[in-house]
Amino acid sequence: MQQRYPDLKVEGGNFPPTKTNTLVASVISYGKLLAIAALIMADANLAEGGPEWFVWMRGNKITCVLMFFFICNAIEQQLLATGAFEVSVNGHDVFSKLQSGRLPSIEELVSFINLAKRFEGQ
After folding, report:
1. Alpha-carbon span 18 to 65, nearest angstrom
2. CA–CA distance from 49 to each of 21, 40, 55, 58, 93 (Å)?
C-alpha cells in the first residue's frame, strides 16, 4: 500500500465503547476491588463457620483473589472492546467493520482507496 500510495497517511486509534459498557465495566472494577478487600478482611470480621464455599474461599485467599482479579478483568476488557476497524480516506468513510461485521480484503481496501482518490480528483 505504501509503495502504491506514497502520500497515503495511515493512522490508528481506539474506537470508544458505548457509555453503558463503560459504566458497567467501571461498576465491575469497583465491585472486584470491594470483593477482594472483603475476602482479605474476612477472618478479622467474621466468626468461624459459614457456608462451605465461603470457608473454602477464606482458606484459599490467594487463589480467590487471583481468580476475582483475572475473571473480572477479562469481563471488563470484553465490555470495552469494540472490535472496530474503520477506514476513511480524506475524511470520507469507505469501510466499517461495525456495519459489515467483517474485515475487508486487501483488494477491497485498494478499490476503496482508488474510488476515494477518483472522487477527490473531480
Report:
1. 29
2. 38, 16, 7, 10, 61
* Residue carrying the nine cell digits 477479562: 74
- Measure the CA–CA gap between 1 and 71, rounded to whole angstroms: 40
Residue pair 61/39 in contact (Cβ under 8 Å)? The answer is: yes
- Exposure b/e, 14-25, CB count within 10 A at least 16 = b: eeebeeebeebb
Cα pseudo-dihedral 58, 62, 65, 67, rounded to 10: -110
How far apart are alpha carbons 70 and 64 in whole angstroms? 10
Decide: pTM greater than 0.85.
no
Closest residue by Cα to residue 67 from 30, 29, 32: 32
Residue 29 amino acid letter: S
pLDDT digits (tens, 9 = 90+) for 30-76: 999 999 898 888 765 565 667 888 888 888 889 999 999 999 999 99
Alpha-carbon distance 11 to 34, whole Å?
39
